[in-house]
Amino acid sequence: MTSVRVMVLAGVLALSTMPLGIAAAPAEAAQPAAAAQPFTAMTWNIHFGVGGVDGQLNLGRIRDEIAKWDPTVVALQEIRRDHQGTDQIKWMKERLRDLGYKDFYGSPPGKMGNLIASKHNLRNKGYADLPHDDHGRTGILLHATVERDGPDVRVYSTHLQSPDTDYHRKLRNKEVRYILENARIDRLHDPVVLMGDFNLRPENKMKSVIANRGFIDTWTTVRDSAEGVTTTKGHDGTCRANIDKVKRIDYIFGSPAIVADNAYIGCQTKASDHKPVIMRLRVEPKDIEISGAVRTGDLGRAGWAHLIVYTDKTSKLITCDNNAGDWRVTSRGYVPYQGDNFVESADGGSEWDRCRVQRSTGATANFRHVALKACVKNTTTGAVRDCRKHGMLERVYMGREMKAGYAQYRVGVDNRVTAKVCDTKADGWTVRSFVYDGEDLLVTWVKSAGNGSCRSNRGPWSWTRNGLRTETCLVNEGETEVKGCKRKPMAYAT
After folding, report:
1. Half-sphere exposure of 83 toward its Cβ, with a 13 Å CA cutoff?
2. Euclidean distance between CA atoms 430 and 425, whole angstroms
3. Are 369 and 394 in contact (CB under 8 A)?
4. What's the domain range around 180?
5. Distance of alpha carbon 218 from alpha carbon 23, whole angstroms
6. Is residue 4 situated within a structural domain?
7. How far apart are CA 28 and CA 409, in angstroms?
8. DSSP for 418-429?
9. CA distance 459 to 465
10. In total, how many domains does the chain have?
11. Is the dihedral of CA 402, 403, 405, 411 positive or negative?
12. Which of 221, 409, 410, 471 has the fewest beta carbons under 10 Å from its own?
């Protein structure tokens, strides 16, 4: 698949002494932030145009519902090229052109039906096969880039396995992890939208895994999950849940650069056995310095927190609860070793899966150290448990009185770890840094030039390997002597 670009905040230098398997990435200049541009995204499993109540095949009702909401970009699942003698993708493209849609990308013949339609031109169109089931069948992850007047938006559409059996749950978990390796956030400024029929209820642990990789469930930042039931049954006439297990299984996830202003369900339509989800979105105009997420609770099921720090040193903290009840998720962005919180929050307080968005007011993040911590707290007793932390940015000073130089480590949801080392003085000793994952595999390493300057390097971090640790030392020019090593754990965002 075509990867999105990476914004590198510090220049990256290729090192001739770099170990095998660790490659330096090319430098790319930071781009100025563009003005926020609103757009509307819709996702809908159309059930091949067959109504969930009356069982009638009528693609015209699908077209009319899309016309009603007039989204900028729409992703349709369960749309077949050959269904009862009709090429549904071709039929829908012809009708949507009359509504102002300019460009399309549909799944190839023989693949599970998906269609992306846009009122703007599309580029970088493609797809990837999801993991196969025991019979060799596979879903797909469709992708395209929407070219707009504002920042382009990368869009993904997918449809995960059902029904809700042990076998299919395990297969869905594989599909989610595969999607997160392909629809990843490689540059924090990139607007990325991941949508489709995930067949995951709000309390499913994989929701937290998706959030942990930086994709925010846009619906819960503006509404309760209970207001967004997307199936035919399990709700009242407004699509609010009337059973304990909320049947919200269709989602629109956004990268850190995406902000939701409003959310809607096409509750009145009877054109499918699913209801369409419509999100009013915009691109955050502020430049993002770093973004990180952490899950909390038993195996990360309770919920999560997502911290975004901007280049103007303000921040935004999104705190979400999967389970509600007496135990709620609390979180804070803070300065390690000092304990100073620059932003803190708790979940939305609803009995139904809801996030709270808190922006920092006055206090700013210290770019030498930034960390995120999330816990679950009992609202009755005040007891706190299941805390996890994520060191997103940390600077380690070296030498006597910390004057020999420093190393700075940055890790977030962009699937890369950046190590930057700087000499404070040219004295024959340089700063060398290694970053290892939880299985002691080398993620990246870098050594300063020895002339008072800085160097940096980046490496991929597989989030399936628990944790990160850093090792920073002073070495002489021939690396025959090593002194003053400091070893620190950093990230536990799994």
Report:
1. 19
2. 9
3. yes
4. 39-283
5. 35
6. no
7. 19
8. EEEEEESS-SSE
9. 14
10. 3
11. positive
12. 471
